[in-house]
Amino acid sequence: MTTEEVARAFLQKPTTLAQRTVRAKSKIREAGIPYEVPETTQLAKRPYSVLQVIYLIFNEGYSASNVELLVKHDLASEAIRLGRLLAQLLPGRFIGINAVTGFEARVTVGCLWRSDYPE
């Protein structure tokens, strides 16, 4: 996703988000924080943040801000994949995100393929 797309998802100006990203990367680099997949116990402590990011990715995929594309199937599919992965890692915790993204994806696909859908 581009900075503009992420900023739109978080309802922020692209310049503001870009500055926050640069500051966060600097902080991570200076603190020597390694990039690693969190342990299951760590993941369970921050479900809201994880769900928010997955849903924002899905939203950009199924309702693209890019005027050239109506739907970005790769983003929507990746968000659905991540939701399913979380449900496997923490059974019973992420059922809702899978239900919502799955339903919205099917509705979008159904609308796009209907022959009587207005152009």
Explain this structure.
- By secondary structure, the protein is mainly alpha-helical.
- It has two domains: 1-36; 41-119, no CATH class.
- It has helices spanning 3-9, 14-31, 40-45, 47-62, 73-89, 95-113.
- The protein starts with a helix and ends in a 6-residue tail after the last helix.
Question: Can you describe this structure in just a few lines?
Answer:
The chain is mainly α and about 120 residues long.
Layout of secondary structure:
Blueprint: H1 3-9, H2 14-31, H3 40-45, H4 47-62, H5 73-89, H6 95-113
Distinctive features:
0% strand; mainly alpha; 6 helices; 70% helix; single chain; 119 residues
The overall average pLDDT, rounded, is 77
- Count of discrete domains: 2
Count up the helices. Answer: 6
Q: What integer value in Å does the Rg equal?
A: 17 Å
Structural class based on helices, strands and sheet pairing: mainly alpha
E-strand count: 0
* CA-based shape: flat
- The fraction of residues in strands falls at under 5%
Portion of residues within helices: 55-70%
Low-pLDDT parts are: none
Distance between the termini: 27 Å
What does the oligomeric state look like here?
Answer: single chain
Q: Largest beta sheet, briefly?
A: none
Please trace the helix and strand order, writing H or E for each element.
Answer: HHHHHH
